[in-house]
Amino acid sequence: MIAIIKATILNCIRDRKNLFFMILFPIFLIFIVGSTLSSYFNSMDNSVFVSDFNIYYLNEGDKKINEVFDTFKSVVEESKDIEDISIKEVRNIDDGKKEVRVNRAVLLHLKGDSIDIYSNDKSFIKNSLVYGILESITDRYNAVTEVYKINPMKAGEIISSTEEINFIKSNDVPYEKSPSSMDYYGVAEIGLMMFYFVSYPLFLLKEDKLNNIKDRIKLSGLSLNKYYLSSFIGFFIFSYSVALINYILSNILFDINYGENLLIMPFAMIPFLIIVNGVGILIPLIFKEDKVANTVIQNVIIPVLTFLGGGYIAIYGELEGIFNLITNISPLRWFNSSIFRSIYSGNNSLLVDWMIFGFAVLVILIILIFFISKKEESNNEKYISVN
């Protein structure tokens, strides 16, 4: 078995052109995709910045509501998080509604002792911002009014106070704890390339059959199940070694965040490559005419699973509904999610589940190899008799 494992690894290495492609292309992809999409990841800041929209108002309000509105204008004008927002008056309600409908503006109708807000349903952030500020002002105004009824002196102190009081405390998740474009694609593109290691067993096992190497191995007395199992081990060692080189090079060249524990990525590779090499071994065993199966796997199944796993478009975190179920079909999704959860949340539960799943696949693979190879041997014995 050791001779077959060694021969399998050497056969993979002899194809220098393909070997260099599998080593260098993931690095190229990480650089190109990571740098190209950096602006998208950088736009996910830890705060919401609102700018460049218009607020229109129609003033038919009383004295008290005008005091609230004057306070609102001063808040908007002095806020550091709101820029290039203009507040303009309209002549009638229809003109204001037209601005809301066409230009996605916000309309405030000061009517008696209330303010009606009109906004475009495509601009809910603007509406929420305006509503939140007005609600805060009116709450404070109503509180002062009630205090004034009980103790006018205390109400005067509240009005004249310049101290900023925060009644709500919030904790933000640090922006540094989310992946940059290089961090994300440093994981995803290596996972993408691991899919294509399936081509090695698909091609080389077929070559062994065409060149009668498989028949010679059988004549040497080695059973077919040991031949296939040895081939699987050889393909796994080769693919895992190349993936490790990708991992080390990307870490050195791009300073990608692979977590404080540098073993997270190597551990997550194991189940992925078990699945990929297992599929590559089983297809020649199950399909005798495997050209169509090879084409479907490499040109249809792998691209679809890569898309669902987030190899092309960034997908991380929990999704909702049926899309979450569909994406979990892809091994790349499990690979990415287990790594990101370990690095950025400190939660290794998904990584442990992924490892358990990989070893369960390994057990199933060994069982299938044993039964299918035994069936192949028994079929050969019907036509070959050795005395």
Automatic annotation (TrEMBL):
Protein name: ABC transporter permease
Keywords from the named record: Membrane, Transmembrane, Transmembrane helix
GO CC terms: membrane
Membrane topology annotation: Multi-pass membrane protein
Localization terms from the record: Membrane
InterPro entries: ABC-2_transporter (IPR052902), ABC2_TM (IPR013525)
A Pfam family reported for this protein in Swiss-Prot or TrEMBL: ABC2_membrane_3
Upper taxonomic lineage: Bacteria, Bacillati, Bacillota, Clostridia, Eubacteriales
Domain ABC-2 type transporter transmembrane: start-end pairs: 19-368
Transmembrane segments: 20-41, 184-205, 226-250, 262-287, 299-317, 354-372
GO molecular function annotations of the record: ABC-type transporter activity
